[in-house]
Amino acid sequence: LPTVTPSLLYDYLQCPHKVWRDVHGPKSEFVEEENPFLKLLWDRGVRHEEKIVASFAFDYVDCSKGTEVERINKTNASLARRAEYIYQGILEQDDLFGIPDLLHFDGTEYYPIEIKSGSADDGGDEDVSGKLKKHYAVQLALYSEILQRRGLQHSSRGAVIDITGQRFEYDLSVPQGSRTPETHWELYKRLHSEVVPLLLNEEQNEPANCSACKNCGWYHSCKKWCEDQDDVTQLFYVGRTIRDAIRRDLNVSTIAGLVDQDVAALSERKKSDKSFLKGVGAATVQKMIVRGRLLKEKSEPLIHERFEFPDVETELFFDIEADPTQDFVYLHGFWVRDANGESFREFTARECTAEAERKTWADAMDFILASSPDSVAIYFYSAYERSSYRRLRRKYPDIISEEELEALFSRANVIDLYTDLILKKTDWPLGSYGIKAIAQYLEFQWRDETPSGALSIQWYNDFLTTGDEKFLSRVLEYNEDDCKATMVVKDYLKMRMDAM
Ligand code: SF4
């Protein structure tokens, strides 16, 4: 049997095709690119782990050094004598291999502990909390299985020490959530059973345009495959699951095949046959076909419904820059358009401290609230600004009350262009409806050649570590362009909607 490691399971969760392609794909098409942002994350993870290890108030056996064989032997000897803590031991058993950050013997059994430089749960959004991240869970489960096979663990538990240094314990044998009866343990077992035939080439799967692609060395190779195959995942919002349903029930796998479908007949069939295109709503089917036609014909964006834009003295086009890996908002940018013309206002934390984050946010809030509600319209692109402000409020509750913040975002003049308009009232001849794709389609150009939020985080980090203002200037320029791009999108929508 091929060896299964946590990183294989992680890859599989990110993209099921990657596992197959890494082993059996056309090697000459793999492009190993330096990714400074991923390196930054990696370095930060290493530093965090060092900090946590230095703070241990217990003795541990350090198995992090030496050859692989030496480390395995030292781990095994430590396990045999029931050492209380083992750091970076190597576990190897049959077809499983892994290096847990810590193994802890609690007097009865061993269990694995991982040190992570993120939060332990999926609570990146305030609406979700307390759910162990899947890739942490399957990693812990794999270690746990090795310990179980060796008779060193009887339960299915594991723990995570997160960015705050707190230890969270998880029972992997309970359902993942109220809507997901599958336990983390069952998830791990399922992934394991799906990965093995791919590694053995007994099964093959296909690329799909997905969020993991942009950081993947197979990007160009898989993109070409999707283009050559006219694959439906090139359409906005169409991923593997929908592609599988379309293939199964319509026997269609190309955009050309999809756009030939009769929307009304499909909707009728969905009504009478609940298993038909299961999991794909009638509205999604209709949208896919519309988007497919737009993409094929490269026609003008469709505006489905009119929206009355507020007629106000001042417009603020607003965008924040944040480092989610540190839960830190470092910049609030506003492109201001009023009777005096246009200008940029920014509120930037010049150091990565809670005090700087709090002060910067307080200043930005003062700026937002300085104009009377009826005289200002605030535009932003995505739910991220709102959810980040809610998170900031929970961190710094003295700045603004929950009621006041909710009242601000409920104003008719405070508009999330992406969620409220782009998604609900328009369609575009594009595979992505992100601000970059749409504003560039509208011929807006960022001054930076490869603008991205990840690069902004990297530049900000470079500024923090070197103090060199040129990095900060790049962050500010990028944010300013994001704000201006929001204005360009708003102006286009208004122009089209006014003409309806
Ligand atoms: S490029 Fe995308 S589809 Fe291809 S292996 Fe990478 S993540 Fe998967």
Describe it for me?
A hairpin with a 2-residue loop joins strand 3 (91-93) and strand 4 (96-98). The longest helix has 30 residues, at 469-498. This protein is globular. Helix 1 (6-14) packs across helix 2 (16-24) and helix 16 packs across helix 18. The strands form 5 sheets. The protein has a 6-stranded mixed beta sheet. It has a 5-stranded mixed beta sheet with strand order 14-13-12-15-16. Strands 3-4 form a two-stranded antiparallel sheet. Mean pLDDT is 93; it is low at 123-129. With 500 residues, it is an alpha/beta fold. The chain is built from 18 helices and 17 strands. It binds iron/sulfur cluster.
Q: Looking at the structure, what is the overall shape?
A: globular
> Which strand order do you get reading across the main beta sheet?
1-2-5-6-7-8
Distance between the termini: 63 Å
Give the oligomeric state of the chains in this entry, treating copies of one chain as homo and distinct chains as hetero. single chain
Helix content: 40-55%
Give the biggest sheet: 6 strands, mixed
What radius of gyration results from the CA coordinates? 26 Å
Which structural class fits the helix and strand makeup?
alpha/beta
Number of helices: 18
β-strand percent reads: 15-25%
